Structure formats: C-alpha cells, structure tokens
C-alpha cells in the first residue's frame, strides 16, 4: 500500500529507527546492517535482497496493524470513536485513505475472528 504524500509545507517525518540496529551503528551514517563491510558482490546482493524482503514483510505487517487500529478507533460501538477525518489527521493520511484503511482493518479484524481477511486497497 502506498504511503500518503506529505503536504507541501509539512516536514517529512523520519522513519522510525529499527529496534535491532545497535545504537552505535545508527550513529554512523555509512553503517547499514553491515552491508558496507561486505566486499563480495554476490554476498552483498544476497544479503541486501534478504533485507529488502524482510523490510517488505515488516512494512506489510505494520500496515495491517495500522488498519486494525484505525478500524478500532472508528468502531461505532466506542463512545470515543474517531471519524475518518480525525484518524487521517493523526496518521498523516488523506481522509479517503483513512476510510479505506478502516475498511481494510475491519476485514482483518473479521479475519481474526474466523473469516478470510481481504487484500488491502
């Protein structure tokens, strides 16, 4: 699922730091999961491909959690439920994207209760 485009006058948010990167390594801008120290191009390709796939899976999983949270926040049974506009503002999304994420989250939550989850929009 694509990320929403930042608004013109808003600064881009930095991505969250990865929990498994050592703090000392993060301080070094040239360090990235030890890839800079791999001299063999074949090994570099293999390791960087592994990381790419791992990040894609992590991204997909994080989006699912975003969707489930959005659906829970928009649940009409909650006395403090949020509107799609409120959710969009909190997450930095457009209102249309928030509506789609709420729908996707509802499908995921139904899947957790036994039904098949739907694919994201």
Describe this structure in words.
The protein is mostly helical and about 120 residues long. It is built from four helices and no strands. The protein has helices spanning about 25, 40-75, 85-90, 95-110. Helix 3 packs across helix 4. The chain is elongated, with a radius of gyration of 18 Å.
Class computed from helices, strands and strand pairing: mainly alpha
Q: What's the total helix number?
A: 4
The protein's oligomeric status is single chain
What is the terminal separation in angstroms? 7 Å
What fraction strand?
A: under 5%
Q: Total strand count, please?
A: 0
What proportion of the residues is helical, as a percent range?
A: 40-55%
Mean pLDDT: 81
Q: What summary fits the major beta sheet?
A: none
Spell the H/E element sequence. Answer: HHHH
Q: Compute the gyration radius: what is it?
A: 18 Å
What form results from the Cα inertia axes? Answer: elongated
Low-confidence stretches: none
């Amino acid at each position: 699922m694509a990320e929403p485009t930042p608004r013109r006058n808003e600064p881009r948010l930095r991505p969250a730091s990865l929990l498994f990167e050592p703090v000392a390594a993060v301080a070094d801008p040239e360090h990235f999961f030890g890839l800079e120290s791999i001299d063999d191009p074949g090994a570099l390709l293999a390791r960087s491909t592994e990381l790419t796939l791992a990040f894609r899976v992590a991204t997909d999983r994080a989006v699912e959690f975003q969707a489930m949270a959005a659906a829970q926040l928009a649940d009409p049974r909650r006395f403090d439920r949020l509107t799609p506009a409120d959710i969009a503002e909190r997450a930095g999304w457009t209102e249309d994207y928030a509506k789609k994420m709420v729908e996707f989250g509802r499908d995921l939550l139904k899947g957790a209760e036994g039904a098949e989850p739907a694919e994201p929009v």
